[in-house]
Amino acid sequence: MSSRSEEDVLAAIERRRRRPHVKLMDRHVTLSHGAGGKSSHVLTETLFMPELRNPMLEALTDSALLQPNGSGPRLAFTTDSFVVKPLFFPGGDIGELAINGTVNDLAMAGARPLALSAGFIIEEGFPTEALRAIAASLGAAASAAGVAVAAADTKVVERGKGDGVYLNTSGVGVVEHDLVLSPTRVAPGDRVIVSGTIGDHGMAIMIARGELELEVDLQSDTAALHELAAAVVTAAGPHLRCLRDPTRGGLATVLNEFVVAADVGIVLDEVAVPVRPEVDGACEILGIDPLYVANEGKLVAVVAPDAADATLAALRAHPLGAEAAIVGEVRADPPGMVVLETSFGGSRVVDMLAGDPLPRIC
Amino acid sequence: MRFVDEFRSGDVARRVAGEIAALVEPGRTYKIMEVCGGHTHAIYKHGVEDLLPPEIELVHGPGCPVCVIPMGRQDDALAIARRPEVIFTTFGDMMRVPSSQGSLLDAKAHGADVRMVYSPLDALRIARENPDREVVFFAIGFETTTPSTALTLLRAQKEGIRNFSVFANHVTIIPAIRAILDSPDLRLSGFIGPGHVSTVIGTRPYRFIAADYGLPIAVSGFEPLDVLQGVYMVMKQLAEGRSEVENQYTRVVRDEGNVLALKAIAQTMELRTTFEWRGLGFISQSALKLREEFAEFDAEVRYALPAVRVADPKACQCGEVLKGVIKPWECKVFGTACTPDRPIGTCMVSSEGACAAYYNYGRLARRAGREATPA
After folding, report:
1. Is the dihedral of CA B301, B305, B307, B310 positive or negative?
2. Which range marks the domain in which residue B354 is found?
């Protein structure tokens, strides 16, 4: 048996955890690589980054920022693919999701969305009525967000080679302020604010798949967040450190990205994190932690303590942020870690998602 | 959330914690084993240890059903899953358990039809919907999950479903507890007894712990307050010099257990002469197989399996962890070569495994002031 102390072991694990990944150990892609957690990060860092490396991509932010002539307003540029199943779910469908997802990626860079592209990959045999419905909701969501779908493409693959419809959207936006939003700016004392209840989208999709035989009235929260993000930028101004929409991997994954980027710790207050009772209940039954469940209409803002109240008020003044809450605080220790103070009076680590959020079996 | 928040109240927890601290005799230390992986998970998830005095150590036991499946059985599962005619169904946790040839998730990536289900009845439904395929259910678990497998078998028989079979790996908790008690490595003060297993088997089977080994046991529920109260009940027995089987989980557990569930198990399954447990080795009469009347539903009869005993990777110390002999962090590969996203041993796979629970939730230097287990 080793004679190392627990502290030594924990320190060694931390060093290892924060070491950049250099080699992809997997010989095949598994679903874990698409779950937005650790495996996704490893795939990006070890396979894509070495081939594509450049300063814009390296930031690994929701949008790349471009300044074509080295001066003037910055442009935000992003892309996202949508493979959601089922295509239609309570609270939305793949069309609305594809617009909102890309609008939000631009909004989290502090940009005003200008134009989007839409690329359809359709499986042979797919009903045109359903395709019309998706196109209609794509159009409606784009109008609602005030963006044009300025370019589009259609491809059809043989029956059995796709799952109905896959959609890709890319987007361009313009940054109309001088703020630098980056998780590296997160500092001890800062407050962590979420714009509303977490886990609604992921849980709505799981329920909509109908595999669970749970009857829960739950809607996806898919929404365009550009107005909400703009309100935060105005309210917090230079006190705003960064914005992020916690999609795949949920709130936990986003906060873990922050603590690693800024080499700080975040202490979350379990009682303060807003979770709908329906989501809480379904998660409890399935053994899933709502902190890891995807959102499509929520943002996380980290702001300096002086701006916390104003930011919270600005969020709550918007219908999409009515249930906003301050959920945590940035501390110097423990660096690189998110710690949850439980309602029970204990504390625990909240790590990055490993694999799919698979349910416990008993 | 109603019926849950009541059992997670911080105020009540502080009060119970105070009463536990008052029961500690000066100069004495206590090792209380929670047998069930569900308890281990709850302890770490809610930070229960933060509320206990340093004299009380919670030792994690063998009751994680994913953790105790030996590698040879996982190899057998892969052999079935890879057959082109088979739809292999399993609980989520088993997907990531490594065999000597990768996990079921890897097999799926290579083309095997592996599907995650939440109940064996889901597997039976898949069989009904795919009459041209063979559907196999990878049955694991203690007495908690055995009845649902038993009921599924009875239904399959009644409906005459021919393309469904079960790869049975159900284990029983009592022989494992006895093996722990007979192990010279560990000196325990008492047990937190498994709650859900006891809903099925009742509290009577634990009497030997009190009678033959003189140790207290409190069968407990899975909310953090349940666990804390279980610790209190064990400590109270110790303070009063008693050793009895007590039931903290009275809202669910009856002394006689669930007679109907036990009957369904007895109808469909019988004890194996012996079964290999990861880390604990072969334990006689510690697992169940399908009865001969259900041979047509028995995947072990239907398919030729390698059925080879496969040694665990040398570096893996899951066995010691499962017996509570070492803490997860004392394992040589813990957190370095073996992590939840790249597990070597089963204890790092299941959320109920002590290593995964400690890695995911407990990796805080909060117990820095406490004595490390002597090397």
Report:
1. negative
2. 318-361
